[in-house]
Design a protein that fits this description.
Layout lengths: L2 H24 L2 H4 L5 H6 L5 E2 L2 E2 H21 L3 H29 L4 H19 L4
Helix pairs in contact: 1-4, 1-6, 4-5, 5-6
Length: about 130
């Protein structure tokens, strides 16, 4: 995969994740989740917060910053931005694995918007790994 196309795909994945994070942060839980079902269970669990802040708020900040960094990388490629994006994607992938584990084995419930973010990070990770040396 060519350098620019890699970053265009990553940019797309980050935008999708940002939109999902915004939905989780802005739209009332009652409008996106049926009570007592998957999304509602995930949203109302203690795992929805880290250090007292809703995880989707972290997502808004992180994905906004990654969108900016990726856009700048498309415009002017630098090694520093490449390394930052790669490290952020690997870190995000590990966090996504944790959240997938929580949904599957602890809560036994799924939030579709959380899954969109998690699987976007898995795809981003695969893109980064398969293009690491290129």
């Amino acid at each position: 995969m060519k350098g620019k196309s890699k970053y265009i795909i990553l940019l797309f994945l980050f935008v999708i994740s940002l939109i999902s994070s915004l939905i989780l942060s802005i739209v009332p839980n009652s409008e996106i989740c049926r009570p007592g079902v998957g999304c509602d269970i995930v949203h109302n669990s203690s795992y929805n917060y880290t250090l007292g802040i809703q995880n989707s708020y972290y997502g808004i900040f992180i994905f906004s910053f990654l969108i900016l960094m990726t856009f700048l990388q498309i415009k002017k490629h630098t090694k520093e931005k490449r390394v930052f994006i790669n490290v952020a994607v690997v870190t995000g992938f590990l966090i996504s694995l944790y959240f997938l584990y929580i949904q599957k084995f602890i809560l036994k419930a799924y939030c579709i918007y959380c899954l969109i973010v998690d699987f976007s990070m898995v795809i981003a990770f695969l893109i980064v790994i398969f293009n690491w040396k290129k």
